[in-house]
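Before a colleague's protein record goes any further, I have to sign it off. Thanks in advance; the entry in question is below:
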Amino acid sequence: MQAIRGMILKALAFAAAALLALPAQAQTVEEFYKGRQVQVVIYTPGGSTYDLYARFLIQFMGRHLPGNPTFIPRNMPGAGGIAATQFLNKIAPKDGSVFGTIARNLPFEPMLGKVEADFDPLAFVWLGSMNRERSIALSWHTSKVKTLKDLQQAELLVPGTGAGADSEVMPLAFNALFGTRFKIVRGYKSTSDATLAVERGELDGIAYWSWSAIQSSHKHWLDDRKVNVLFHTGPESEQEIKAPSIRTLVRDDVERAALDFILAREILGRPFLAPPGVPEDRARALKAAFNATMKDPVFIAEAAKRNIEVELVTGEEVTEVLKRAAASPAAVLERVNKALGR
């Protein structure tokens, strides 16, 4: 009799637990987000271009997400973006209440065997990117380096903003692959600090700077001819930037594939992602809201007014870029690591 009573109590407890769970299971996306604050992690300090893009996005995205939640930005600099990435990967709630933006180079680091980057980039929920980047190398107008050919013959002092940052990784890669002579001066906290150093004459130029970033923050440098654009990283057919493409220097197929791997980060220009394991319906809603925001005419008009370059790259496109990179042959990955000095 005691055994039967125990079985009945267990059955009742199980039934009660199931009933209690029903409201959460049946909760719609709109019900989940209504009245909620969604945390948006930004891997850079306030005032950076990544910060500018993220804060601009969340001014509009709430109106496209069911329940119209409030978005709260949270800057989380550290370790070249790894701190924010690991927060999203291991610590942040996986319920759709947190997403963020990380350095566009970081998803490729695990593929290259970087120990600190112990995460699976394909496990994240990729919302998409706010643009496709092209980047430039430039010298200050007083520098004797005025062309790409000059850069292969004379040193150019450029800033480094942290180990693993594009400002240090990319000039090393260009030096190794194409014989450019960037000399990195480390210790600058941000691109903002570096641009001031260029203007003060401490540095000769910048080795790798997004075209969208210079357009939004230092367009006057171009308009006033304060800088020489040495090369860009876009296709050879690029017309807007009056300089040669670095791709014209490629010598063989492995080198081309290595450069494609290194520059694949530019397709992820301003990437946004949510933690692994977000419920499927909320993941779909976040992606749809991101896409709708990027197509919003008011958003697009305001971006043009602020000189913020936007172009939708969907989460599916980001995932495909990462899948192709992960499938790179060993010889290509070896060339990439060699180019990066590893």
In short: The chain has two domains: 35-132+269-311, 135-264.
